[in-house]
Each structure stands twice: as structure tokens, then as C-alpha cells.
Amino acid sequence: MAVCYIVGASPTCTPFSPAMGDLVIAADGGQRALAAMGVTPHLIVGDFDSSDVPCGTPIIRHPVEKDDTDTALAVREGAARGFRTFALYGCTGGRPDHALAAVQTALGAAQAGCRVFVVGEGMVGTVLLNECFRFFPDGTVSVLSLSEKARGVTLTGLKYPLRDATLTNAFPLGVSNEGNGREATVSVKEGALYLLWQADTLPL
Q1: Which distant-in-sequence residues (6+ apart) come within 8 Å of 165 by Cβ?
Q2: For the whole model, what pTM was predicted?
Q3: Are 188 and 152 in contact (CB under 8 A)?
Q4: In angstroms, rounded to a whole number, what is the distance separating the alpha carbons of residues 93 and 140?
Q5: Of 94, 100, 102, which Cα lies nearest the Cα of 118?
Q6: Is the pLDDT at 51 greater than 60, yes or no?
Q7: What is the pLDDT confidence band of residue 29, given thresholds at 50, 70 and 90?
Q8: Is 60 exceeded by the pLDDT of residue 105?
């Protein structure tokens, strides 16, 4: 499965190793984090308000005053190139508004049929939209509703199971569950969830 890696300008960025066929996009200042890892991006997208315009790497430049974040623009570029699986690095540290914007970007991408993993602060997050997700968490797991009401929420394989429950975006019932390294599932029949679990690698 080919992955589009998008790296933001957060001062903390989990290292990763792209494979052949993957696409690496620096979202503006993310090029500094990639340089520190020794990874050369295939493309740099942004308004370059927080970094210099590089030489030798293809760029797509946007105006500083715009509606989209640099990360969202990078996701759009990856989707235009046929990618449906995305990994966002360096998008959760530094500023809480950018972290929340990354979650909203993941939700918008899920609504368009893409899977986005948000990696950072020792956690991996992804949006679940009317679906079931299987994974093998070993540590903290949190499940939060992005919808006013997320119905038919079922958790299996975790310390605190749920069955056909309703979660709301006004009460964080699903925070701080636990996995033990065995298979677990999180499913929602109607609505959107944000699932986070303790990990530094993608479940691919």
C-alpha cells in the first residue's frame, strides 16, 4: 500500500522511513524536519511564511492569506496524485490549534474516502466514519466522538469494552482505555470517531 507522507513544521517529529512508491510532501516548514531526518521530499507545498523557498525541489506555492492550512493543501495534492492513505507527521506539537486542524483535515479526507493517520506525541490517530477498524494496541487507547452523536459504538479487545453505545462530542467517555497488544476493534455504525492509540508506527 503506497503512503503519502506529509510533514509539518512542528518542532517534534517522529522519524519514519518511506518505501519505494511512497510520496513525501513537506508542508512549508516541514522541510526542516525532513532535512534533520535525512529525507528529501518529492514536493514542498505551502505559502513559505515560515521557511525559505528551496532550490532543486519541486514546489507548489500558495498565498499567505488563504482558507486552507498548508497541511490540508498537501493532502489535496497527494489525493490528486492518486494516494488514498496519508500519514501526517509533525502536525500535532507546538500549537494546539494546528493539532485540532490536523484532526479536521483527517475528517475531511475520511469523508472523501481516504485514510489519514496523524502521528505525534507518542500517539497515532485516525478518523473512523461508519466503519470497523482492527488494530493491535499496546498501551493507551482513546475514542472520541467528532459527531454530535456517534451511534452504535462497539469496542472489543480493550480493558473497558463497549457494545452498541452512543458517544457524544460533549462528553469524553472514551478517553484512556487500554490495549494489551492483542487484536482490538473499534466500530461505529453512524457518525465519526477519532481513535488514538499509543504507538510510533503505522498499522500497515
Answers
A1: 152, 153, 154, 173
A2: 0.91
A3: yes
A4: 19
A5: 102
A6: no
A7: confident
A8: yes
C-alpha separations of 27 from 44, 101, 147 in Å: 6, 14, 28
Does residue 172 register a pLDDT over 90? yes
Query: Smallest Cα–Cα separation from 25: which of 97, 96, 73?
Result: 73
In whole angstroms, how far apart are CA 63 and each of 16, 19, 24, 27, 66? 29, 32, 22, 14, 6
> Three-state secondary structure along the chain?
CCCEEEECCCCCCCCCCCCCCCEEEEECCHHHHHHHHCCCCCEEEECCCCCCCCCCCCEEECCCCCCCCHHHHHHHHHHHCCCCEEEEECCCCCCHHHHHHHHHHHHHHHHCCCEEEEEECCEEEEEEECCEEEECCEEEEEEEECCCEEEEEEEECCCCCEEEEEEECCECCCCCEEEECCCEEEECCECEEEEEEECCCCCC
Alpha-carbon distance of 155 to 114, in angstroms, equals: 23
Report the DSSP beta bridge partners of residue 65. none
Are the C-beta atoms of 8 and 106 separated by less than 8 Å? Answer: no
Neighbours of 20 (CB within 10 A): 5
Instruction: Report pLDDT digits (tens) over 3-18.
Output: 999 998 776 778 888 9
139 is written with which cell numbers?
498501551
